[in-house]
Amino acid sequence: VESPTYPGMLAIARASGLRPVPVPVDADGVRPELLADAFRASGARVFVCQPLFQNPTGAVLAPARRAEVLRIAREAGAFVVEDDFVRRLAHADAGELPPPLAADDPDGVVVHVSSLTKATSPSFRVCALAARGPALERLRAIQVVDTFFVPRPLQEAALELVGSPAWPRHLRSLTAELKTRRDAMTGALRHRLPELALPHIPSGGYHLWLRLPDGAHESALATAALRAGVALTPGRPYFSAEPPAAHVRLSFAAVAGTAEITEGVRRLRAACDEVLGPGRENGSTPPPGVATLLP
Questions:
Q1: Whole-angstrom Cα distance, residue 21 to residue 266?
Q2: Which helix (H) or strand (E) holds 211?
Q3: What range defines the domain where residue 15 resides?
Q4: Exposure of 167 by Cβ count < 10 A (0-12 exposed, 13-18 middle, 19+ buried)?
Q5: Which of 61, 190, 198, 208 could lock 51 by a disulfide, CB 3.0 to 4.6 Å apart?
């Protein structure tokens, strides 16, 4: 798996009796040389990745790495599960998006998964899975035993939605609003919280991935932020092994608008002052008042 990655993916793997093997991600996506090392060391046969606007980093797999990832997986006798969950949430300034990895795979290495959920509603649980060859036959057999088929009302609702003239308008409105919210949050963070590093500003998705100052304690910050009325996600659950630094993930999806984002960052500033101490941008030690909150 990519490292960091979606905690739900790690939970699914562990519940299935699998051991997630972390492969570091940088600004250009997963690092192919480390992926090859991980296959050799672990004997893994599946690599799960999010090549487009990866969660939580927002990275996009670089063009030069796409063929390398497929080659490495093919030589290892492994499948690539491509979680293309956020393709419809590209921001208005994203430009032309790269095609799915599956488009470059004639050999049936990639299993492509996408969904309407993120662009519509958390309750609209409709997804699509595309595969070739033996992988497709095995997945089809599993579906017959497991879910059999998508319920007819959901199928018809999905068809009516994506076939409506309003669907493209909805997507355009969504991408414009996501860009507006992203810009509002990045601007507020730069103004009020310059000590929180934002190494990459994504052009898709609905969250930002921030690195805390050295020595900062993300669990203490999350607790203080919640007291201030701000919900954020500590970074530790996104790593299947020891993280290289403390991080937090901030979402700009479930807010009323940009004014709420600005107010949320103002409150987060107060929480940082409580945890790091006013002017303590290095975050070397937590204040005594929150020491008991640390894991």
A1: 38
A2: strand 207-211
A3: 2-162
A4: middle
A5: 61
The tokens for 286 are: 């937590």
pLDDT digits over 34-66, tens only? 999 999 999 999 999 999 999 999 999 999 999
Task: Give the three-state DSSP class for 123.
Answer: coil
Distance CA 33, CA 23 (A): 10
**Parallel, antiparallel or unpaired: strands 247-251 and 207-211:** antiparallel
Q: Are residues 244 and 114 in the same domain?
A: no
Are 94 and 26 contained in the same domain? yes
The percent of residues in the chain predicted with pLDDT above 70, rounded, is 94
Number of structural domains in the chain: 2
- Greatest CA separation found in the chain? 60
Determine the straight-line distance between the first and last CA of the chain, rounded to whole angstroms: 25
Same domain, 119 and 239: no
Give me the amino acid identity at 75.
E
How distant, in Å, are the alpha carbons of 153, 221, 288 from that of 277? Answer: 55, 11, 10
Q: What is the DSSP string of 215-234?
A: T--HHHHHHHHHHTT---EE
- Asked if residues 220 and 293 have their Cβ atoms less than 8 Å apart, the reply is yes
Q: Which residue has the tokens 């996501």?
A: 178
pTM for this one? 0.89
**Cα(259)–Cα(70) distance, integer angstroms:** 44
Closest CA to 8 of 47, 60, 51, 48: 48
Question: Residue 250: CB partners within 8 Å, gap ≥ 6?
Answer: 185, 207, 208, 210, 232, 233
Number of Cβ within 10 Å of residue 78's Cβ equals 17
